[in-house]
Amino acid sequence: MAALTEGRNTPQALGDIRTGPVAAAALIFEGALVMRNAAGDLVPASTATGLMGVGRAEERADNSAGAAGDQNLAYRPGVFRFANSAGGDAIGQADIGKVVYAVDDQTVALTDGTGTRSKAGFVDAIDAQGVWVRFDEALTRLA
After folding, report:
1. Nearest residue to 80 (alpha-carbon basis) of 53, 113, 48, 52
2. pTM for this one?
3. What is the reported pLDDT for 13?
4. CA-to-CA distance for 121 and 44, rounded, in angstroms?
5. What long-range pairs does 123-126 form, CB within 8 A, spacing at least 24?
6. What is the dihedral of CA 39, 41, 42, 47, to 10 degrees?
7. Torsion of CA 132, 136, 140, 142, to 10 degrees
8. 52 close to 36: Cβ distance less than 8 angstroms
């Protein structure tokens, strides 16, 4: 495409809700920690490699009997509280700013579980109920 020779109305994405195709055979519950797989489809977080955290599911998407992309999911990047792992994988106050890893669709851990877990996001805060995780897919990919 050639350079502009006059003004243009460039489209803008408004708001912070994004949508994406759901992976084949995936069931994602509203409020779940959502990840993108290597094919670019959305899946519920799990202990697996090759995934990248994108945010929180804003709705339920049941693509259990469908092919990849048969359904779309609305998800939101941002800061959300999820359950803290336990033992040596528990996240503490000193871990604010560090990358966290997905254990399941509601739990994050401090380590990658010796190479078995994917990056979810960054620790934003800790409280008695869990870990506040900041989801920004581009930044997480760089970490």
Report:
1. 53
2. 0.92
3. 84
4. 14
5. 123/91, 123/95, 123/96, 123/97, 123/98, 124/79, 124/96, 125/79, 125/96, 126/84, 126/91, 126/92, 126/93, 126/95, 126/96
6. -20
7. -140
8. yes
Rg (CA), the chain: 17
Half-sphere exposure of 90 (CA within 13 A, CB side): 10
Q: Which pair of tokens denotes residue 8?
A: 């243009």
Q: What is the pLDDT of residues 109-143, one digit of tens each?
A: 999 999 999 999 999 999 999 999 999 999 999 99
Domain ranges of the chain: 18-76, 78-142
35-74 per-position pLDDT tens digit: 999 999 999 999 999 999 999 999 999 999 999 999 999 9
Q: And the tokens for 63?
A: 């693509």
CA triplet 90, 102, 138: central angle to 5 degrees?
120
